[in-house]
Amino acid sequence: MRTSKKPSRPRSVLPGFGLTMGYTLVYLALIVLIPLAALFLRTATASWSHIWRTITDPQVVAAYKLTFGASLIAALVNLVFGFIVAWTLVRYRFPGRQLIDALVDLPFALPTAVSGIALTAIYAENGWLGQYLYPLGIQTAFSPLGITIALIFIGLPFVVRTLQPALEELEGEAEEAAASLGASRWQAFWRVIVPALLPAILTGFALSFARAIGEYGSVVFISGNMPMKTEITSLLIIKKLEQYDYAGATAIAVVMLLASFAILLSINLLQWYTGRAAVKGV
Amino acid sequence: MATATLTTAHSQPLGRVSTGEPVLVRYALIAITFTFLGLFLLLPLAVVFVEAFREGIRAYFASFNDRAAWSAIKLTLLAAGIAVPLNLVFGLAASWSIAKFEFPGKSLLISLIDLPFAISPVISGLIYVLVFGMQGWLGPTLDALGIKVIFAVPGIVLATIFVTFPFIARELIPLMQEQGTDEEQAALSLGASGWQTFWRVTLPNIRWALLYGVILANARAMGEFGAVAVVSGSIRGKTNTLPLHIEILYNEYHTVAAFAVASLLALLALVTLAAKTAVEWRVHRQQVASLEPTSAEENPS
Predict the structure, then answer these.
(1) For A31-66, what is each residue's pLDDT tens digit?
(2) Hey, how many other C-beta atoms are within 10 angstroms of the C-beta on A9?
(3) ipTM, 2 decimals?
(4) Residues 6+ apart with CB under 8 A from B172
(5) Cβ A92–B6 below 8 Å, yes or no?
(6) Residue A121, Cβ neighbours under 10 Å: how many?
(7) The pTM is what?
């Protein structure tokens, strides 16, 4: 019975393809694909003038600029310091290294609402660090700087965890060759190590950037949410929903979603391109 | 002195050119790592616990002596208790069909499974509002039947399932692809049934990766904020999970209570990190152990 009923396509002796594949597709469609389709269909059926008015509204444009700007700066900061952290963890041995290594994932594990109120307690005017920064004229909480700090926090593990395996795989031979040919350590770093790590560097940067664009929980507490000043797009979506402006919320969401898809697509293209380059022996 | 505590990871064989950095640079880089991680990781963690105990241990425990707090704990456990097992079953089904069989469109399917990771929390909640909300596709119909999804418990559970959707599947798929089907085929040819093969052969081979996925999915399920905030409507004592309860307490200036509840979730995060590290260590040992003797046995030719 089992063999006669088996579809001809998957030629494997193992049973259960029909059942597991069917379950996978149904569950995927119900939980992910159909709800996601609702988002795009809702945009398609809404009036274009309303959508255009929503996404070009000065308040929304200000939120886009803030979200993308703060995310970009946070990703760049993470790139520099994440590189140093990954480098130290992979190449050096020092007491506490394994503890630090485990701790790098904290922003993944700590709920965003918890990191949000913790960061606010540190950087608010009477906070742990805020009380020293504010007299110097540095406003941290309730400012774009505070938002950037929160985005650095949540994006850090992406850079470190992408760079670590790449650094571990990096062969020492090219560096040794460079050194024996008289290159300084600094030259070897820029001419040999950085080019070899470039795909991982860009991937880590893009992942950290993409995560920051969509972040909500760790930012809303520290941002203060002042319209035109410290309002991120995720918060605007919620505000539109609270005003029962579903079309407006959907329009802003689609723009954000397309932006993060574009970033992730470019990572995939990059990996495909560098993968091909590696095959060609470049 | 320096070399006793501080050596480069790559031990250099004699006669090769040194490619290490000067000791001073090494110290500087390690100092930067400690400062940066101390400032951005350790300090927020410390703040949670210090602020929670700011008014003493009695005020700390008083924060939990509250019906809203208990119902938030219960709802959090309920949402994770439904989402994680459902995604566990899905992860097993998906990885079995994807890793053990060949079919066209496989990489597309894997990308679709990863999709929830690419979608921001707020949008994850929004899509369910668009389907089940009163202005949504099914909202009016469900309302006529007296079923509430959005601003109710089912919406929270659905949003939690969505944000933890890929965790277990993405741990299992690459591992099962790597393991191939040889062992399962052997079991089947010896007369085992499909179920027996799965329980006795496949499951033991993937148990650590499975546990790893469950740990990560559970942490996210209990800590999700954005997606749940959108669908909950935050009705106090009814549709609050722990992260939403923290937000309400914090916005009402019950700072100690907010941090007390937050310390519970921070503790969960620390347990998650410890369990994750333990499983990684275990898997690493297993890999090392399985590489040495079996690689020689498996290639007799």
Answers:
(1) 999 999 989 888 888 888 888 988 899 999 999 999
(2) 11
(3) 0.88
(4) B91, B92, B94, B95, B99, B206, B209, B210, B213
(5) yes
(6) 27
(7) 0.88
